TrEMBL record:
Keywords: Cell membrane, Membrane, Transmembrane, Transmembrane helix, Transport. SUPFAM superfamilies: MetI-like. It comes from Natronincola ferrireducens. It is a multi-pass membrane protein. The chain crosses the membrane at residues 27-49, 92-115, 127-146, 152-170, 209-234, 254-277. Belongs to the binding-protein-dependent transport system permease family. OppBC subfamily. The keyword Transmembrane applies. One of its GO terms (biological process) is transmembrane transport. This is Peptide/nickel transport system permease protein. It is found in: Cell membrane. GO terms for cellular component: plasma membrane. Residues 88-277 form the ABC transmembrane type-1 domain. The keyword Membrane applies.
Length: 289
């Protein structure tokens, strides 16, 4: 009982130190604030604008920013402000969904390769090496091109490329963790492999995976936007940041706001995720504990 109390006290002290280090990192806090603002805006989008993101009004096409249209209108007279807000919901929702798929596949494959070893590890490692030999965006572009243009196919293409990084890192962590004394002791005591993975291996990987996932969301948003920009992602008239930049490309000289605002939104969100991820990495770095 006494040992359990001491353990809980140590865990509480560790959590307090982690919070303290996080709030001392101004850039990480800034990234967190920016993300919170975007998330709140995405949730409240229907309340923040009364304009229809799909409504076409050619009489209002390419109007500059004004009180009626804070970010101007595009080539079809649609409110850019409204489309940026709804585009944010699309982009971030898709990115989080892809991240969930990638985490599930990457962690599962990495744990299997690292824990089982032998032929399974060799086979999976070769697949990972082959996929990592190709530039991720080019491979995603090829997969999306084969599947056809749609947001769902873009999600599949990005997930098919992105999981390998998680699998490789998780495999390395599992190879290290399974050699620890407490894991060997659990095996000696006849503990099931499933319980060992669930109780001893996965909990020790949570912090690095959280850091990697936070840094990776920005990369996923960029890849989805890039594929949409190339016409392989979200299809008209769906508001999505990459597709909106593509829509404004022809009017870059005469109506730069059509490209500027969705591009700025991508920049801010990706920067925020990177700042937050860098801060979390510094916090969970073993040298800082």
């Amino acid at each position: 009982m006494q040992q359990e109390i001491v353990h809980l006290q140590k865990e509480e002290i560790k959590r307090m130190k982690t919070k303290h280090r996080f709030f001392k990192d101004k850039m990480a806090v800034l990234g967190c604030i920016i993300l919170c603002i975007f998330i709140i805006i995405s949730i409240l989008t229907p309340s923040l604008t009364t304009n229809d993101p799909l409504k076409v009004d050619l009489m209002e096409r390419l109007n500059p920013p004004s009180s009626t249209y804070p970010m101007g209108t595009d080539h079809l007279g649609r409110c850019v402000f409204t489309r940026v807000l709804y585009g944010g919901r699309t982009s971030m929702t898709v990115a989080v969904a892809v991240l969930g798929i990638v985490l599930t596949i990457g962690v599962l494959v990495g744990v299997l390769a690292g824990y089982i070893g032998g032929f399974v590890d060799t086979f999976i490692s070769h697949i990972i090496d082959i996929l990592l030999a190709f530039p991720g965006l080019i491979l995603a572009l090829a997969i999306a091109g084969i599947l056809g243009p749609s947001l769902i196919n873009t999600m599949i293409a990005v997930a098919a490329v992105q999981w390998v990084g998680y699998a490789r890192i998780v495999r390395g962590m599992v190879l290290s963790i399974k050699e620890k004394d407490y894991v060997k002791t659990a095996k000696t005591c006849g503990t099931s492999h499933f319980f060992i993975i669930l109780r001893h291996i996965l909990p020790n990987m949570i912090s690095p995976i959280i850091v990697l996932a936070t840094l990776d969301v920005g990369a996923i948003i960029l890849r989805i936007a890039a594929l949409s920009f190339l016409g392989l992602g979200a299809q008209p008239p769906t508001p999505e940041w990459g597709a909106m930049i593509n829509d404004g490309r022809a009017y870059m000289q005469t109506a730069p706001w059509v490209m500027f605002f969705p591009g700025g939104a991508i920049l801010l969100v990706v920067m925020a995720f990177n700042l937050l991820g860098d801060g979390l990495r510094d916090i969970y770095d073993p040298k800082n504990t």
